Amino acid sequence: MAASLRRARAGATAGPTAAFHAPLFHDLVAGLDANKRHVVLDLGAASTPMLALLGRSRCRVEIADLAHFGGIDRLNGAEPGSQLTSVAESLLPNRLSDDAIDVAYCWDLPNYLTLNALSALLTAIGEHARPGALAHALVFYADRDMQVSPGRIVPTEEAELIDLSPTSRTIPAPRYSPEDLGKGMGRFVIDRARLLGNGMQEFLFRLES
Predict the structure, then answer these.
(1) What is the pTM of this model?
(2) Separation of alpha carbons 119 and 62, rounded Å
(3) For 166-180, what is the mean pLDDT?
(4) At what angle do helices 82-90 and 115-127 cross, to 10 degrees?
(5) How does DSSP assign 32-88, residue by residue?
């Protein structure tokens, strides 16, 4: 884990935390038209700062919270094929059938999924999204280790990001490359990528028609 991210996580239990700039996240939030309704899928836990930030625009927000209800283990443990497809679909909110997704926030969840599981999840999301929909993700790149479970990443008022999860033991990070992520993402393709100051890579994936 990058030193700055370690300090941010340590600060969650021992003093002020350090936010990090994520320009693609900032641009994605700033680009939400306040006069247009947006359907947003959040794969993390519900957070007041995120809901407040999205509340500046007309957003209907659906929360999946895959990290805290066994979603990661279910996806990684499913057999590739119909079983994995069924599990991925079952983890998405039922109300998504009512309207098409415009934006999906994946946070650092992709680091904790196998590429097969990630592909199945993005494919399932794509089935409920409009062409051109965007998915945002943070991927460990520079560091070999990551926390044993996904972080609790929330935005600041300035649309920077901060990880409020307590420190824990670490596990090896898969350190997926853009080439890895470009394979098997369903109809999602890499739209933009940025290397952040904390050693993570920030991605926007776009759903092709």
Answers:
(1) 0.89
(2) 20
(3) 91
(4) 60
(5) S-TTSEEEEEE-S---HHHHHHHTTSEEEEEE--TTTTTHHHHHHHSPTTHHHHHHH
